[in-house]
Design brief:
Family: Belongs to the delta endotoxin family.
Strand content: 25-35%
CATH topology of the largest domain: Delta-Endotoxin, domain 1
Shape: globular
Number of helices: 10
Structural class: alpha+beta
Number of domains: 3
Largest sheet: 8 strands, mixed
Organism: Bacillus thuringiensis subsp. aizawai
Low-confidence stretches: 1-61, 636-660
InterPro entries: Galactose-bd-like_sf, Pest_crys, Pest_crys_dom-III, Pest_crys_dom_I, Pest_crys_N_sf, Pest_cryst_cen_dom_sf, Pest_cryst_dom_II
Protein name: Crystaline entomocidal protoxin
Helix content: 25-40%
Distance between the termini: 61 Å
Number of strands: 28
CATH superfamily of the largest domain: Pesticidal crystal protein, N-terminal domain
CATH architecture of the largest domain: Up-down Bundle
Mean pLDDT: 86
Keywords: Sporulation, Toxin, Virulence
């Protein structure tokens, strides 16, 4: 890493007039008001931090595994070209929630209920739980009837009886969902405890409605297809808003719990686990609009989630102020970065302890090879040694383990990390060693996120990659807390456009932001947003693997009329009508789900050669909040492109025959 240009993470916005990327770790002064914490944690279904001796890190039926697996299932099926020629997306989701191995039981749904009960330290009434499980069992049976009817119709699509049967069962399942979602899965006073179940059931309902939009006319209910499209849009907004509202309500309850009994790991566990089981799922809802997304989709999540704090149980690591812990152990909103390596600083002044006292993250922005840095407690002195770890190109860290000194009497003894091992997605490992032969006891801890399937986590089935590491000292240089940030594996650090799919690139995957700032996401976008006003500029590098004609759409929210300039290299202008108004009256907050719309740039684009193209987006008004930029192939697939090139060669050959 010594060869890296040592640019600070926030230099990229040095000219910003309202940058929110000032170093959050200097925002709050170090405080002396600390306390013993981490009394009794009870998150056995999910541990980003767990003792290495635990062989059952996470039950294969665990709630978080359900969220990870469902997301992986949908993202995988999204990329299948013939996804519109069957109900694979709906069936894939249903089979994941009711696997054959459950033998008719409701284990997956019960895991979702059990886990949120532990996170909130509350219990569902037995009657509410039983009613919800019974209705889920009924939904499963109805979906099975619809599946059989669909299979029968698919074999003989002109049979009027088969058409009527599949259309009838479709309407039965839809009606059942509408009733259950409005009552049983959102029971009053139990909205938070039922939220993971609600989100998964909502996902199934919207996937069902998507099938009605695709097949309604072929089932002989053409007017109903329009009706079900309206229903799809209606319930997408209802379900997304419900999930965000009650997620935030639960988060507020966690803040109240922290004020009474500070435990940042408990607060963070709620946010992390509910992100995976609820917010990640609803981030996909807008893509279910089969009339807007007529091709396979390549999409990604850019949100970050955080591990438990290593050593939070040590007196002096945690502070009593939640905001100060947030500043110490998480990052403020930022453009997406890729972790490229570390400098580690080992404290050597204590005779019998060698441990990690400070570090520097090295990272780059998407589509940009320049290396930036951000440091924690890395003052270099005569009693410290420095070691460097470089992450190879096209590899990422998907899990790690640490050895750290245990907290024993006297409490003045160090508890820092003595050794770390990183597992890479290229099946290699990297190691930091402060000492390989510690004199005093150490504990081994795994940090990992569940894989995309039920197999043990490896470089072939990882779901998340390490994106950042923080550390904080509030009680001298012997009491250090460490956290690790994780990003979903769907993130493409090349911004590669698929020539056969609609490619969504989140705005936060730009490589520079002039004057504008990154705003915390509202919970339903799968990541943060870029906020811009007049003359603010966002630069994004996009990779085209081949020449391509394409169109561009932008998903955004704004409360005023305006427009965006798009430079690449010619100037295009797209008008952005306000999204928060209904009949001319202010109705939605700009962060509401219903305030986000998709607008198409009224121009065609062409990538003439393979390689990177830079897009600069400039705001002509503000504020406008940009979620994603979509690249839609303009009726050109890879096969059509190659065929067109062969046809052109043939034409040229024929012309040569007549001119020579």
């Amino acid at each position: 890493m010594n060869s890296y240009e040592n640019k600070n993470e926030y230099e990229i916005l040095n000219d910003s007039k309202k940058s929110n990327m000032s170093n959050p770790y200097l925002r709050y002064p170090l405080a002396n008001d600390s306390l013993a914490s981490m009394q009794n944690t009870n998150y056995k279904d999910w541990l980003t931090m767990c003792d290495r001796t635990d062989t059952d890190v996470l039950s294969s039926r665990g709630a978080v595994s359900t969220g990870v697996g469902m997301l992986s299932t949908i993202l995988s099926l999204f990329g299948i070209p013939l996804i519109g020629e069957g109900i694979d997306l709906l069936l894939g989701a249903a089979d994941f929630l009711w696997p054959e191995s459950d033998g008719g039981h409701q284990y997956t749904w019960e895991d979702l209920m059990n886990h949120i009960e532990e996170l909130m330290d509350e219990r569902l009434e037995t009657e509410k739980r039983t009613t919800a499980l019974d209705d889920l069992r009924g939904l499963k049976a109805l979906l099975g009837l619809f599946r059989d009817a669909f299979d029968s119709w698919e074999k003989n699509q002109n049979d009027p009886i088969a058409k009527n049967r599949v259309g009838g069962y479709f309407e039965d399942v839809h009606t059942h969902f509408v009733k259950d979602m409005a009552s049983i899965f959102s029971a009053t006073n139990y909205e938070v405890l039922l939220l993971p179940v609600y989100a998964q059931a909502a996902n199934l309902h919207l996937l069902l409605l998507r099938e009605g939009v695709i097949y309604g006319s072929r089932w002989g209910i053409a007017p109903a297809a329009d009706f079900y499209h309206d229903q799809l849009l209606k319930y997408t907004a209802i379900y997304a808003n419900h999930c965000v509202t009650w997620y935030n309500n639960g988060l507020a309850q966690q803040k109240e719990l922290f004020a009474k009994s500070p435990n940042w790991n408990r607060f963070n566990a709620y946010r992390r686990d509910m992100t995976i089981t609820v917010l990640d799922i609803i981030a996909l809802f807008p893509t279910y609009d089969a009339r807007l997304y007529t091709k396979p989709i390549k999409t990604e999540l850019t949100r970050e989630i955080y591990s438990d704090v290593l050593n939070l149980d040590v007196y002096g690591v945690q502070q009593t102020d939640l905001n100060k812990n947030e500043a110490a152990f998480t990052r403020s909103p930022h453009l997406v970065t890729r972790l490229r390596g570390f400098d580690f600083y080992t404290r050597t002044k204590y005779a019998y302890w060698r441990y990690l006292a400070g570090h520097t993250n090295y990272f780059s922005f998407t589509g940009n090879g320049t290396i930036y840095s951000s440091s924690f407690n890395n003052w270099y002195d005569t009693d410290m040694t420095k070691s460097t770890i470089n992450i190879p190109d096209y590899a990422n860290i998907y899990k790690l383990w640490t050895k750290s000194y245990t907290n024993i009497s006297p409490y003045t003894d160090p508890v820092g990390i003595s050794q770390m091992q990183f597992s890479l997605t290229n099946n290699q490992q990297l190691t930091y060693t402060g000492t390989s032969a510690p004199k005093y006891p150490v504990r081994e801890t795994f940090f990992e996120i569940p894989p995309t399937d039920e197999k043990p986590l490896t470089y072939e089935n990882y779901s998340h990659i390490l994106s950042y590491m923080t550390s904080a000292q509030h009680f001298g240089d012997k009491k250090i807390g460490y956290t690790f940030a994780w990003m979903h594996e769907s993130v493409d650090f090349d911004n590669r456009v698929d020539p056969d799919k609609i490619t969504q690139i989140p705005a936060v995957k730009g490589d520079y932001l002039q004057y504008g700032y990154v705003k915390q996401g509202p919970g339903h976008t799968g990541g943060d947003l870029v906020s811009m006003i007049r003359t603010d500029r966002l630069g994004i590098n996009v990779y085209f693997p081949q020449p391509l004609d394409y169109r561009i759409r932008i998903r955004y929210s704004t409360s005023s009329n305006g427009y965006l300039y798009i430079y690449s290299p010619n100037t295009k202008i797209v008008y952005l009508p306000p999204t928060t108004l209904v009949d001319g009256q202010p109705t939605f907050d700009p962060m509401d789900f219903s305030a986000f719309r998709v607008v198409e740039v009224p121009a065609s684009f062409r990538a003439s050669v393979a390689g990177y193209t830079n897009f600069t987006i400039e705001a002509g008004f503000g504020p406008v909040y940009i979620d994603k930029i979509e690249f839609i192939p303009d009726n050109t697939t890879t096969l059509e492109y190659e065929g067109g090139r062969d046809l052109e060669k043939t034409k040229n050959a024929v012309n040569d025959l007549f001119t020579n």
